[in-house]
Amino acid sequence: MAEWVQNVMETFGYAGILLLMIVENLFPPIPSELILPSAGFAASRGSLNVVIVLVVATLGSVIGTLPLYYIGRAFGEEKLVAWADKHGKWLTLRGKDIRQADDWFDRHGTKAVLFGRMIPGIRSLLSLPAGMSEMPLPKFLTYSAIGSGIWAALLIGAGYLLGEHYDRVEQYISPISRVILVLLVVGVVVWFVRRRREQAAGA
């Protein structure tokens, strides 16, 4: 994977970084913690300008958030509420739960997008609830750009400083990403089990 990423950058330059960051948001198995340090390493060799790399990487990351954002907008709160009330019983999911989640995102969505864009494992997924809660697009793009820019700067800087050892960044961050995903899955399972027990107790 690392060699393929390097080949894309060497062949297409800044356009390659832009494309990789767009794809990374849609297909998380191509991680930014590999792409961005590699771009930083390329900049350290003088083949790319580090400032332009940062701008292009941030732009690609923001563009990559849009498909999932618009998918979330297409479904929207009311459609999800109607679906949950009709079909969500097997998931112990009610329309009320959707509204509560949407209310939470309305209150804390800006912070969730800003800081969530810097958390491996969930940074791409946050676009869906942002779209579902109908967060205004300018606000979504602004906070996505800030969070993505900080994340990109950290990883590009690490790759720049580590030079040929840039791949160590992914080696350190990948386990963190897996832990976060496992915790998310465990959290969903715990919530599901508790709801089942509450339903059984109330029956």
How would you characterize the largest beta sheet? none
| Low-confidence blocks of residues | none
Radius of gyration: 19 Å
Counted up, domains total: 1
Order of helices and strands: HHHHHHHH
Quaternary: single chain
Given the helix and strand composition, which structural class is it?
mainly alpha
The helix count comes to 8
Report the end-to-end length measured between terminal Cα atoms.
Answer: 52 Å
Strand content: under 5%
Strand segment tally: 0
Average pLDDT, to the nearest integer?
A: 78
Give the overall shape: elongated
Explain the layout of strands and helices:
Layout: H1 2-12, H2 14-26, H3 32-44, H4 50-87, H5 95-116, H6 127-132, H7 137-162, H8 168-202
Give the key terms:
mainly alpha, 203 residues, single chain, DedA family protein, 8 helices
What does this structure look like?
The chain has eight helices and no strands. The protein has one domain. Helix content is 81%, strand content 0%. With 203 residues, it is mainly alpha-helical.
Short note summarizing the structure:
It is built from eight helices and no strands. The protein has helices at residues 2-12, 14-26, 32-44, 50-87, 95-116, 127-132, 137-162, 168-202. Pfam families: VTT_dom.
